[in-house]
Amino acid sequence: MFWTFTTAAGSYLFIMVMIVPHVLISLFSRTGNIPHLLARLWARFTLRCARVRVELKGEGNIPCGPAVYMANHASHFDVFAILGHLNVQFRWTVKKELFTIPLLGLAMRRAGYIMIDRSNHEKALASLRGAAEKICGGASIVIFPEGTRSCDGRLQFPFKKGGFHLAVQAGVPIVPVTVVGAREVLPKHGKRVKPGTITLNVGLPIETAGRSVEALMEEVYNSIKLGYTL
């Protein structure tokens, strides 16, 4: 329970100390880039409090321009690892419920993260249009195409289609990311944080022009699965 306590205490302490500077800086950052960098520092600090190390492999596969990054999702620590160590200016698509968390929800709003209301189809589509605007502004988008965390760590398929439609409409590549080791740190419904190592395997970008959503889903699935073996 020691690492669970240090992780929670360190994470919320950082938010409490930095929330006012975060909000003030966001008032002068129209793009949300600076608040996103502060969020990266929060993620790295949280990982350090949990004594979790992150290795990034395949960094050369990261394209120069914006893209839609898609990763497997089995742990809350997927978020910390990607946010802290994927060296890209990106915005999350985040389920509506997380925006209600005190302080954290405010920080995400100020960083320009995109709220997805899964209970309302029209609002979800509007959120994806907002994500397309972020891409046009030069920022990438990170999506967990499974839609929720996997209970057993196995990749859930078929994926949710929204992110694929977004990539096709925006005309940007999809970059698969395989997160390995996060479930061992903290599985879904787990209550104890265990120190360890998380590896981010960045796959080759997948071009979306002229491709069907179904074909893209299968290729992304295969690429993420391949990342487990690297």
Which consecutive residue ranges, at least 5 long each, have pLDDT under 50? none
The percentage helix is 40-55%
Mean pLDDT rating: 88
Query: How are the strands of the largest sheet arranged?
Result: 1-7-6-2-5-3-4
Determine the CATH topology: Glycerol-3-phosphate (1)-acyltransferase
Q: Name the CATH architecture.
A: 3-Layer(aba) Sandwich
Which structural class matches the secondary elements? alpha/beta
Distance between the termini: 32 Å
Q: What radius of gyration results from the CA coordinates? A: 17 Å
Number of helices: 8
Beta-strand content: 15-25%
- The SSE string, one letter per element, is HHEEHEHEHEHEHEH
* Number of self-contained structural domains: 1
Q: Globular, elongated, flat, extended or rod-shaped: what is the shape?
A: globular
The CATH superfamily bears the name Glycerol-3-phosphate (1)-acyltransferase
CATH class (first level) name:
Alpha Beta
Largest sheet: 7 strands, mixed
Tell me what the structure shows.
The protein is an alpha/beta fold and 230 residues long. The chain contains eight helices and seven strands, in the order ααββαβαβαβαβαβα. The chain is 44% helix and 16% strand. The protein starts with a helix and ends with a helix. The model has no long low-confidence stretch (mean pLDDT 88). It has one domain: Glycerol-3-phosphate (1)-acyltransferase (3-Layer(aba) Sandwich).
What characteristics describe this protein?
230 residues; alpha/beta; Glycerol-3-phosphate (1)-acyltransferase; 7-stranded mixed beta sheet; 8 helices; 44% helix
Secondary structure elements and pairings:
Layout: H1 2-26, H2 33-49, E1 52-57, E2 68-71, H3 77-85, E3 90-95, H4 104-110, E4 114-116, H5 121-136, E5 140-143, H6 162-170, E6 174-180, H7 182-185, E7 196-202, H8 213-227
Helix pairs in contact: 1-2, 1-4, 2-3, 5-6
